[in-house]
């Protein structure tokens, strides 16, 4: 255990040396500021790291992770991250990324008292309730599990779109765009669920319009 822990610092030393050998000013530039185009909201699962699966460099992706990539507007952590990313970092894209074989989603499908996890997993159970007819019609348990992962991503994207800071900046600049992805651990591929951002925005306008203004949905012409 001690050797495993100490190896982290040795790996860090080698990483620093590698970066400096490629670019002597790498850390000097890295320390100045960040201008990421992407906010990535993903699962805390140790097998699905944002930068690695996206092939991104330090400074390119602002990251928030929690169990089963949930966006609950009562959770100050995720909402603070989203607001900071939208209002201060001016990200152009918000990605909610789930993954197949997600332990959090699997736990939410299990009729078991999981203690402190219950309130968190209730968010995913609510997704099951919303889509129960579709999910219960899937006989294969593995495919039903995969579909709930996808639907959870879809519903969390909608939760992002409900937020006032996202609506207000989109009206002004037509950004950020919200995307839903699933990472397939079995193949290593990212699957774009093709969330129709503008359609979702229009569909929820009557109930979740927090802008006190008419929504302008037409794209800017070049």
Automatic annotation (TrEMBL):
Matches recorded under CDD domains: beta_CA_cladeA
Name the record gives this protein: Carbonic anhydrase
Keyword Secreted belongs to the record: no
Catalytic activity: hydrogencarbonate + H(+) = CO2 + H2O
Keyword terms of this UniProt record: Lyase, Zinc
SUPFAM superfamilies: beta-carbonic anhydrase, cab
EC number: 4.2.1.1
Transferase recorded as keyword: no
Top-tier EC class: lyase
Pfam families: Pro_CA (PF00484)
Membership in a protein family: Belongs to the beta-class carbonic anhydrase family.
InterPro entries in UniProt: Carbonic_anhydrase, Carbonic_anhydrase_CS, Carbonic_anhydrase_sf
Species name: Chryseobacterium paridis
PROSITE patterns associated with the record: PROK_CO2_ANHYDRASE_2
Family matches, as SMART domains: Pro_CA
Biological role: Reversible hydration of carbon dioxide.
């Amino acid at each position: 255990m001690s050797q495993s822990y100490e190896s982290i610092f040795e790996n860090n030393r080698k990483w620093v040396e590698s970066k400096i050998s490629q670019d002597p000013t790498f850390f000097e530039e890295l320390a100045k500021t960040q201008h990421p185009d992407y906010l990535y909201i993903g699962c805390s699962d140790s097998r699905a790291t944002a930068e690695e699966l996206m092939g991104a460099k330090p400074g390119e992706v602002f990251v928030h992770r929690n169990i089963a990539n949930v966006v609950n507007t009562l959770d100050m952590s995720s909402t603070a991250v989203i607001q900071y990313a939208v209002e201060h970092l001016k990200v152009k894209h918000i990605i909610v990324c789930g993954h197949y074989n997600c332990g959090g989603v699997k736990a939410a499908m299990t009729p078991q008292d999981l203690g402190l996890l219950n309130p968190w997993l209730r968010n995913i159970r609510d997704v099951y309730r919303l889509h129960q007819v579709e999910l219960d019609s899937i006989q294969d348990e593995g495919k039903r599990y995969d579909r709930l992962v996808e639907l959870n991503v879809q519903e969390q994207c909608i939760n992002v779109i409900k937020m006032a800071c996202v609506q207000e900046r989109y009206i002004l600049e037509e950004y950020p765009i919200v995307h839903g992805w699933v990472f397939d651990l079995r193949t290593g591929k990212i699957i774009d669920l093709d969330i129709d951002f503008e359609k979702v925005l229009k569909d929820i306008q009557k109930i979740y319009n927090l802008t006190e203004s008419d929504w302008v949905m037409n794209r800017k012409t070049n």
